[in-house]
Structures are given as structure tokens and as C-alpha cells.
Amino acid sequence: MLAIKNLLPILLSCAPAAIAEVIRRNTACNNSPSLCSKSYGEITHLGAHDSPFLRDASTGYSVSGNQFYNTTVQLSAGVRLVTGQVHKNNNDWHLCHSDCKLLDAGTLESWLSEIKTWLDGNPNDVVTVLLVNSDDATDSELATAFEASEITQYAYTPSSTSAPTSWPTLQELISKGTRLLTFVASLSSNSNAKYLMDEFAYIWENPFEVTSASNFSCLPERPSTVSKDIPSALSSNRLPFMNHFLDKDIGLGIEEPDVDAVATTNGQNGTGNLLTAAQTCKSAYSGRQPSFILVDFFDKGPAIDVVDELNNVTDATGRVPVPNTNADDNSNSTSSGTYVGLLELVDEVKNGANPSVGNWIWAGGDWLSVLGGGVSI
Ligand SMILES: *[C@@H]1O[C@H](CO)[C@@H](O)[C@H](O)[C@H]1NC(C)=O
Ligand SMILES: *[C@@H]1O[C@H](CO)[C@@H](O)[C@H](O)[C@H]1NC(C)=O
Ligand SMILES: *[C@@H]1O[C@H](CO)[C@@H](O)[C@H](O)[C@H]1NC(C)=O
Ligand SMILES: *[C@@H]1O[C@H](CO)[C@@H](O)[C@H](O)[C@H]1NC(C)=O
Ligand SMILES: *[C@@H]1O[C@H](CO)[C@@H](O)[C@H](O)[C@H]1NC(C)=O
């Protein structure tokens, strides 16, 4: 799921409707009453890949954006896993896509605060955060941001340092107030912040960086100890994590989210479609459904319908539809504004920044030097 190797309120107009809504929400967990008694690892959580990296007006419709709507909108619409890459920037920890010069979505603390505010307002919901630890932040460094955002008040601390045979139910997590599960890829030690779980001790993933709709695979890729070995992955008790997003190879090793294909990628039926892929994997996993499904442009498909289908949810409640605004208007993605981030990189290179690699790409009317010989955006 890494994109780089290195790396609302509800307005209720009348009283009877208000009462009915309150009752339903109190008995629903992650939008459905049927999920309360299910274990955290048994259901499928919809994940927004690179959640804070937006392709909207705020980023000049950056081609480095993986989502049209921000994390708050994602969570309100039913997303329950949000991922992002943590990079060191000016001695602070930021969420940046591949490189802070390409797309800087602000500090980790501020993003965690946004999630914390959402958790405050949604007491029956369990949320998972997965951080890609691109610049090897220590547990203490990450914990500083977690504590400053006050999201630690919701943090779940595992009872074991390896994958458990079973996880608490959503209702247990909600009742104990431990509604935030945090995984980090990777963490050498969490002795100073036990709620930071080293991802690959608890989870295995299929491949990412897929550029052809026919190339999605159910085989485990990471951690290497279970690579290409489904029986080992399953018997390790790790949770199956299904990456399902398509990149477009735009040449010279650069990949960007394939937004044009998203109706298929997040759709239901046929090669490269999300439901078909999830059912194929579930079958390959002896009936075990993926615990997480990670997608780009989550509102397309819509991907949540696939997750509801896997979770046998027919009574979803309390979701807020994505705003009916211009965020998913791709017309600007091909304009020069799109390449603002890339052009900044070009400027850096022109100004003498270390063009360590000989790959160049013509982007937005200028030449871009590819840092590291394989930047995925
Ligand atoms: C998220 O997006 C919505 C809709 O565009 C906007 O109203 C809200 O202010 C944004 N929230 C944050 C925290 O950026
Ligand atoms: C599809 O996967 C195969 C096997 O991994 C690989 O050889 C091939 O290059 C991939 N095709 C594309 C278009 O990515
Ligand atoms: C999926 O494909 C099958 C066979 O091609 C078709 O019968 C079915 O109606 C399709 N379902 C949806 C939801 O498109
Ligand atoms: C949904 O139903 C299928 C088929 O009965 C079952 O395999 C699966 O475990 C169920 N999933 C959930 C989360 O209830
Ligand atoms: C596209 O960009 C133009 C110029 O920046 C702007 O005026 C317009 O509102 C944008 N379109 C959308 C749908 O955001």
C-alpha cells in the first residue's frame, strides 16, 4: 500500500425523526447494528489510501492526490481506515506524499487532531490509522504528535506483541473507549508508546504498485516471512490487508493514481473490479474475508457498497454522503495547475538540489528530474 518504495453534523427537522435517529445510532457500531458483536479482525474495514493527500482545489488538483475528499469527509462517509506517509520536514513530522516538496498535507499532529475531533463526535465508531514511517520516526517522536493531538485518549493497546488469535469485538472497543487502532510500517520499538503497533507483526498485505487491471493479486507480499504463502499468512493470525488501487505508469518509473480507471477499480463486477477481487481473495483465503481494503478515490464505485456486501450490511446508518461539490471534477487535473508540486521539484533541481538520478520527465511544460529512479506519486 505504500506509494513509494522507500519509503457533519446531521440536521433533523422534526422531533420524531430525531428520536428514531438517536436510537439507531446508539445501537450501531461502524454504521451497522449487525457489526457490534463482530470481532475487529473478522469484518472488512474500508480504507482510504493516502487519506490526507488530496486531489482538489487545495492542492491545485495535484496528480499526487489519491482522494477527492478530506479525512473528515471520508470517515463520515464510512471509511474506517486511513493511511498516510510520515516524513520529516524542517524538524517536524509531516504527512507528505513521497516528498514534502511534492505534496505536504501538514503536520501529523494536525491530522491526528482532525481524526480525534471526528472520534469525539462519533462515539460508536472504531477507526484504524496506518502510518507509513518513511523517515523512521521513533515511537517517542510519533507519540509526541499523538499526545499533543490528545487522540491518545482513544488509543487501543494490544495485549500481545504478535497477532492474536482473535480481536475484541467492535462493541468491546467502543465500551472501553479504545476506538483508535494504530499501526505503523514499520517501527523498530514501541516500548515508549505501546499503542503504536508494528504493522507487519499484526497484518499481511498483498502487492501494491499495480498498473494493470488484470494484475491484482491475492498473494501475500509483506512481511517477507509469509511472502507468496497464503497458508503461512493465514496460520500466522495476521489480518489480511488487501491493497486495491491502480497506478498509471507515466514513464521513467513514475506512477500516479489511475483516476480514469477508478469506476472499474472500485466497481463491482469483472476483472480489476473491487468486489470481484475481494471475492477472489476471500476464496483464496479459505473463506476469510480481507480485514482491510485500501482504495484510492474511495467515494467512487462506490467502494463502500462492496464493503457492505462483504460485511453482510444492509442496514447502514449514520453515514454522511460526500459533498456535492467540485472535488471530483477531474477537468482540472490535466491543467497546468495540476503540476504545481512537480514544478516545485523541478525548481529545486534547477536551483542545485541533488539530482542524484538521470531520469527526466516532461511534466506540465517543464522537465522533472526523478529523485531516486522511481518516484510513485
Ligand atoms: C473537509 O472538507 C469539507 C468539505 O469540503 C469541509 O467543509 C471541511 O472544512 C474540511 N475539513 C477539514 C478538517 O479540512
Ligand atoms: C503483470 O504481472 C506480471 C507478473 O508479475 C508481470 O510480469 C507484468 O509485467 C505485469 N504487467 C503489468 C502491465 O504490470
Ligand atoms: C455481474 O456480471 C454477471 C455476469 O457477467 C451478470 O450476470 C451480473 O448481472 C453482473 N452484476 C452486476 C452487479 O453488474
Ligand atoms: C457475511 O456472510 C458470509 C456468507 O455467509 C460469511 O462468510 C461472512 O463471514 C459474513 N461476514 C460478516 C462480517 O458477517
Ligand atoms: C478549474 O480551475 C479554474 C482555474 O483555476 C477554476 O476557475 C475552476 O473553478 C476550476 N474548476 C473546478 C471544477 O474546480
UniProtKB/TrEMBL annotation:
Pfam families: PI-PLC_X. One of its GO terms (molecular function) is phosphoric diester hydrolase activity. It comes from Talaromyces stipitatus (strain ATCC 10500 / CBS 375.48 / QM 6759 / NRRL 1006). Gene3D superfamilies: Phosphatidylinositol (PI) phosphodiesterase (3.20.20.190). The keyword DNA-binding does not apply. GO terms for biological process: lipid metabolic process. Transmembrane segments: none annotated. Keywords: Signal. Residues 1-20 form the signal peptide. This is PLC-like phosphodiesterase. The keyword Signal applies.
